[in-house]
Write a structure and sequence with these properties.
Structural class: alpha/beta
Bound molecules: iron/sulfur cluster
Order of helices and strands: HHHEEEEEEHEHEHEHHEHEHE
Strand content: 15-25%
Helix content: 25-40%
Distance between the termini: 31 Å
Number of helices: 10
Number of strands: 12
Largest sheet: 10 strands, mixed
């Protein structure tokens, strides 16, 4: 049976206990406005109700428990314990202008086995529940951090977890996190059914497709999912997404030296993205410097400046819009592709 989120559970309990209807609002205001993380401290509730809540739900509102924290100047990585003695990680990025952005996990491990990815070496342990996904953010919120933007690029493939959509509901519910849809970004290796559902249900949420090679045979080698959902089919679904939503779609591309960073690769990326229709300017390529870890194969290295320059020159000459992502946190293994159980 699908687990129910704590917010649904609280509603059910309040109604079973014949509490007045304003109690739920009082509780969500305590959590989200006043940052109260323990039922005991919800002083606006009668003591007997607080005791009932603790009996039913435990003392803490947050279901994930921080067990380690690593911080550098702009990045903070928190390792959380979740049920079953598993670990997942979330990263907070702090930009100079005060903007705080988060990268959270949706699965414990991942079963898709992309060759360059540290999380992929663990295999899938399990999907996180909607509470476990959103509580990674609740933890930061309760500790006084503003939540400005969130990407689902931590451990796991977000669209492979059926609980993702309930988590999106919780994050965008005005009584709960109340985040604007455009502040959320889903990153996917190209799971078509999930992309189509996102287009239907959350058209304003940002979408990033991890391409990493424009050649199907090489992409299947790097990312076995390509055998199921090849590039052409995914790009067709992304065209539909853009046409229906009028929103940009980001194409993520990790640059691996001597593997996928040649000018021929850049030309083939451009080839895919040109001539698609009058919406094609809404495709935006994000080039990502590769981060190696202790568990990813030694054969992968980051591209050097001259290869990146050549790649970029080709994209520019073909009129492809792109940015090169600034890397934060590679010194503490908190950058993309590095999230791995380190404890
Ligand atoms: Fe899984 Fe994403 Fe890593 Fe691929 S890149 S193995 S989908 S976490």
């Amino acid at each position: 049976m699908k687990p129910t989120s704590k917010y649904t559970r609280i509603r059910q309990l309040l109604s079973e206990w014949k509490q007045p209807s304003y109690r739920y609002k009082q509780m969500t205001e305590a959590i989200f406005k006043h940052k109260v993380g323990e039922y005991e401290r919800m002083s606006m509730l009668p003591r007997s109700l607080r005791e009932e809540l603790i009996r039913a739900l435990g003392p803490q509102v947050c279901s994930v428990r921080p067990v380690a924290e690593l911080a550098s100047s702009q990045v903070c990585k928190v390792l959380f314990a979740v049920a079953g003695d598993e670990r997942v990680e979330a990263v907070r990025l702090h930009y100079e202008r005060g903007w705080k952005s988060y990268c959270i996990s949706t699965q414990c491990g991942c079963g898709f086995g992309c060759k360059f990815c540290a999380t992929g070496t663990i295999g899938l342990k399990r999907n996180l529940t909607a509470d476990e996904i959103t509580d990674q953010l609740l933890y930061f919120h309760l500790n006084g951090h503003s939540l400005d933007s969130v990407s689902f690029m931590g451990m796991g493939e977000a669209l492979a977890n059926p609980n993702l959509f309930e988590a999106l509901h919780i994050l965008t519910d005005p009584d709960l996190f109340g985040l604007g849809h455009r502040r959320l970004t889903i990153s996917t290796i190209g799971l078509l059914p999930g992309i189509e559902k996102l287009t239907r249900e959350y058209p304003q949420i940002n979408l990033t497709f991890s391409l990493h090679s424009p050649f199907d045979d090489q992409r299947s080698e790097l990312m076995p999912i390509n055998n199921r959902f090849p590039i052409r089919d995914v790009l067709d679904a992304l065209d539909r997404h853009i046409r229906q939503t009028g929103r940009k779609v980001y194409i993520a591309y990790i640059l691996l030296r001597g593997v996928n960073d040649s000018m021929e690769h850049a030309g083939a990326v451009a080839e895919w993205l040109r001539g698609r229709g009058d919406w094609e300017h809404l495709y935006h390529v994000t080039l990502i410097p590769y981060n190696s870890t202790d568990v990813t194969p030694d054969s992968y290295e980051a591209s050097d400046a001259s290869r990146i320059e050549g790649f970029v020159r080709v994209l520019k000459s073909r009129g492809i819009r792109f940015t090169i992502r600034t890397q934060f946190g590679s010194d503490i293994n908190a950058a993309c592709g590095q999230l791995y159980r380190t404890e």
